[in-house]
Amino acid sequence: MWEVNQLTFAYDDKKTVLDQVSFKIETGKIYCLLGVNGSGKTTLFNCLSGFLKSNYSLDKYFIDNKLLYIQDEMHFYKNLSGLEFTELIFSLKDKKFDLAEFDRLLSKLKMNDYKNERISAYSLGTKQKLVLIIGILLNYQYIIMDEPFAAIDFIAAEVINDVLKELKEQGKAIIVSTHQLDIAQELADEILFLNDGKVNQIINNFQTPRELKNYIRLYI
Ligand SMILES: Nc1ncnc2c1ncn2[C@@H]1O[C@H](COP(=O)(O)OP(=O)(O)OP(=O)(O)O)[C@@H](O)[C@H]1O
């Protein structure tokens, strides 16, 4: 269980973006973080992962060993191939690289053709898939993903849905921000709805995306 209590953050004195945000994350569940543009989803993720300093006290061991943050903007060595980059990450982290599992995931995410291709030739969606594969291989317990579906076609989105469900079955906790209510309604066990600086944590009992939308509309 990962508990966030009363996290507050402001970029400057004028406006508090996150105002005593509290929620609980359990392993074996998928959480979708929803909120209108500018509500603070990326800011929240940056505070949780230590990229921004808030009043939330960070646990360095947790951040280094348990938490994977897949950002919407990622940095690569673009002259390396997907395989070389992945191997590099594993050597930097001093972890054993499982090539067979890498190949299985590449195949599952329809990425075989990119294995030996330079990352400079990857589309944004392909780069996001590569990071997801690396994250799965590194076996983090908590995975935060900022808008992973934004740059991904609907076929790939279905595959990623399946991969996330597989991770959930393995006992991981996944927090995904998205604007796509159909994905949230289909995927999430719980919704984290960020509005006016607060997080509302709701069990996802919504039967349709429209039901979820109608609920959210009550607040905004
Ligand atoms: N570096 C920054 N300096 C000052 N204000 C910022 C900075 N980054 C974001 N903000 C402001 O903080 C608020 C929250 O932004 P954030 O990017 O976290 O929202 P978001 O929910 O992720 O938005 P979106 O759905 O558009 O991606 C917005 O008002 C934004 O303008």
TrEMBL record:
User: Mind telling me which PANTHER family this protein's record contains?
Assistant: ABC TRANSPORTER ATP-BINDING PROTEIN ALBC-RELATED (PTHR42939)
- What keywords were assigned to this record? ATP-binding, Nucleotide-binding, Transport
Q: What is this protein called?
A: ABC transporter ATP-binding protein
Q: Which Gene3D superfamilies does the annotation name?
A: P-loop containing nucleotide triphosphate hydrolases
Q: Which residues does the UniProt record annotate as the domain ABC transporter?
A: 2-215
Q: Tell me the InterPro entries matching this sequence.
A: AAA+_ATPase, ABC_transporter-like_ATP-bd, ABC_Transporter_VariousFunc, P-loop_NTPase
Q: Name one Pfam family in it.
A: ABC_tran
Under Gene Ontology molecular function, one entry of this record is:
ATP hydrolysis activity
Superkingdom of source: Bacteria
